[in-house]
Amino acid sequence: MSSEDTVGHGVSQPSDAELAEMDRDQLVKLGGQLDGVELVDYPDPWPVKGTRAEKRAERFVALWFTIAGLAGLAFVVGLIWWPWQYRAPGQSGTFLYSLYTPMLGVTLGLTILGLAVGVLLYTKKFVPNELAIQQRSDNQGNGSPEIDKKTIVAHLEDAAVRSTIGRRSLVKRSVGFAGGALGLGLIGLPVASFIKDPWKDSNGPDSLWHTAWQKKFPGEVVYMRRYTGKSDEIVLLRPEDLDAGAMETVFPFRESDRGDAEALSAVFMRSDAPVMLIRLRPEDAQRVVKRKGQEDFNFGEYYAYTKVCSHVGCPTSLYEQQTNRILCPCHQSQFDALHYAKPIFGPATRALAQLPITVNDEGYLVARGDFIEPVGPAFWERKS
Ligand code: FES
């Protein structure tokens, strides 16, 4: 191609040799001409270098990046070492526990805010505020020829050079600190959950395999307790407390918890503890289909199913007496209470776990043992 050819906006096309010879300023100018851009004004914001005002502006920008960095570090440290384990109201450490989520939100938010303010301030204070006029153009989807690529790269380099970031080591260091802390936080978020081994105690009530209904020792009686909203009010249920067609949410109670305010309130907060106790109407009880291996899990017309939905774990709080359906309000899964709570509508694919129950010598409804499968949604290691 000869140097006389034109390539848009009446600009002469330089030869490849001429293009290779051009320095950054010439390429920037050429790129502007090719795009029909006329640089009207390109002032250096700090024409006199090293003034006190310039240093002050630089320190101000660095301050925001430093704030972002410190907040990012605080986020990572808090994410790992803050006391995040649940503390019931009144227990020691409740206050710190209650601040865990706000602390994560504030520190991560401050990190992002600090970075954003730093970048904005830097752009405002140090990047030349050019005034340019561009004619609109369209290359009709013909791709970018070599000349466009080179001039665009030159433009980007020019912007970096004119921003003077290269010679502002304080800003560069603080940006690196803030970016590093944010990166550490982003890595820490998914990694932190692996710090605690979920399989460390596979047989305890805190493992994924068991619930608060697990007996602490052989022969322990775990009663069904009515939810009254008051942790120190213990109301145990007898069969006659439920009318036919009724449903009641119950929690486990063990005599060893009596008088222990902490334990009594903690059980209400356990997500795997609530159970739906359903008393079927006699005519419905005749039509029940029991699950293989769980034929004796009910007590007459009384059936107990976990309230933790097998889809993603919302509370399946609604029982429709006429149809004997249990409904989960989150994604509208429905379970058939007459058919071992198997799903009949919606995204859930597994039946609600059934708690084996009976009535003890004193006439109270009690759990015969823990659930025989994990309650709630699936996880990798789960087999059923
Ligand atoms: S959590 Fe119950 S349907 Fe999704």
Description of the molecule:
It holds the Pfam family QcrA_N. This is Cytochrome bc1 complex Rieske iron-sulfur subunit. The chain crosses the membrane at residues 61-82, 102-122, 175-195. By secondary structure, the chain is α+β, with helices and mostly antiparallel strands. The chain has 2 domains: 52-192; 222-367, 3-layer Sandwich (Rieske Iron-sulfur Protein). It has 9 helices and 12 strands. It has helices at residues 16-21, 24-34, 52-81, 94-98, 100-126, 146-162, 169-192, 261-269, 282-285; strands at 37-41, 131-134, 222-226, 247-253, 275-279, 302-306, 318-320, 325-327, 334-336, 342-345, 357-359, 365-367. The strands form 3 sheets. It has a 6-stranded antiparallel beta sheet, covered by helices on one side. Strand 9 (334-336) and strand 10 form a beta hairpin. Helix 2 crosses helix 6, helix 3 (52-81) packs antiparallel against helix 5 (100-126) and helix 3 runs parallel beside helix 7 (169-192). The longest helix is centred in the N-terminal third of the chain and has 30 residues, at 52-81. The N and C termini lie far apart (72 Å). The relative contact order is 0.10. The model has no long low-confidence stretch (mean pLDDT 88). FE2/S2 (inorganic) cluster binds at residues 309, 311-314, 328, 330-331, 333, 346-348.
